[in-house]
Sulfatase-modifying factor enzyme-like domain-containing protein (Planctomyces bekefii), 224 residues
Amino acid sequence: MVPADEYSLGEKKDRRFVLQQPVEISRFPVTNAEFRKFVAAEGYDQQAYWKSGWEVKCERNWTAPGSFTLRGFDAATQPVVRVSWYEASAFCEWLTATDGKYQYSLPEEDLWEAAARGLQGFRYSWGDTWYRGYCNSQRLLGRTSVVGTFPNTTSPCGAVDMTGNVWEWTSSLHERGRSGRVLRGGSWDHYSVDCSAWYRNYVTPGVRYVNFGFRLARTLRPGP
């Protein structure tokens, strides 16, 4: 749970973000096993879940994320990767439709950063000092790690792997591109500066890389 409060964001901690209501954020990135439920539910065939990207999905003949057939990245408890922003968003729509109680989404980037840094404003999820081996980065393993393998990455709100392992899609647009979506957190093949909680990466939403994954934000659905 990310508590309602005022957070300091940015490299110099000179930007303020006020969270009016607490928001739940998933403890781990979404795994292959979790995403397989969406595939098994024929989520790739139901346009209702694809608020955007349906045409791209059809043109590229996507039927599952790339990690499902990528040796070394396909374990059930590894984060799903080679998944585009469109696929991650469709997963959220499907989960919302099947849950009934909660609204699921990709976290907005300021919320993501607040969850990673906490009220302390940490540079990394564990503090301000970089320690090699605290997270899955710098090609330490040469691939993604099973979620939770690096407990030192636990952020103040209890979320794990917010430093390293996979770049995480957010819902936010980047101002430098008309359609570029922001990713946060660094990954298994990136270095300390890229893994900083304030660091912003961005690409177009149809890109699928072996180090791109996502986690969820969750709020109660509004009443009738």
